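Every protein is a chain of amino acids, and every chain bends into a shape of its own. The protein below has been through that process, and both of its lines are reproduced in full.
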Amino acid sequence: MKKVAMACAISASFLLLAACNSGDNETVAKTSSGDIKKEEFYEALKDQHGEEVLYNLIITEVLSSNFEVDEDEIDEEVDSFKDQLGEQFDMWLMQEGFADEDELREVLKLSMLQEEAVTSDIEVSDEEIEEYYNDMKIEKEARHILVEDEELADDLKKQLDDGADFAELAKEHSTDSSAEEGGDIGYFSRDAELVPEFLDTAYELDVDEISEPVQSQFGFHIIQVTDSKDKEDFGSLDDMKKEITRTIKNDKVDQADAQEKIQSIIDDADIDIKIEEFEDLFEQPEALG
């Protein structure tokens, strides 16, 4: 399933909140004990989800005035979910809190607007695209040892260089679930849901080569590629260029820079919220001196 770089969630109740009018006293439910009015319903939803709903609605409006998401792109994302989920698609929508496909499309639109905002000025060269494409034609098999401490990682690498058994060290020291399998994570592709640091390193290694410790958000990896094989019936570069470019851009995103870009767009939008309890929604805390 395609990655959505800047994920957000809008539940069915969120969109109901957006549609409600606080001044409307229409009955939305009747019971033998009394009626529920739309205003009462609105207030309850506002108290529970109002801040997140309002934030998402404003961000969508602001980003839409600065960036454009083609409906065809949203169609592609939805079709990707449908292709992989098959008959389970409707059940998945319900489990994720979406009333229907339209709500999923709203989430995807906001996510893709955010993605465009933080990647629009990131450059990707033809050489990078071609190299990534060539890597995508190959499947790698690898194992790794993941530890939190750099000093331990350096020590384990030295032990491996001196002939220690990789699987045994993984079983003893690795902190992830692959430890039970001696660090084996099986075969994977260049676009697998693995951290970029791991993938970049694995695709630079020859079979049986062991990497130096590589840091990611999870700790320090020592990686050994155990096999490499070509994929069959692989698509053309022209067909895959757009998606490859998008993936490379997302891999280059620095989260701190991304937050600054979004905040800068928000600051320039001159947002004035008229609901008293949410009027400080976009105010930034003062820096500590």
About this structure: Residues 1-16 have pLDDT under 50 and may be disordered. The beta strands are 27-31, 34-37, 138-147, 184-188, 214-216, 219-230.
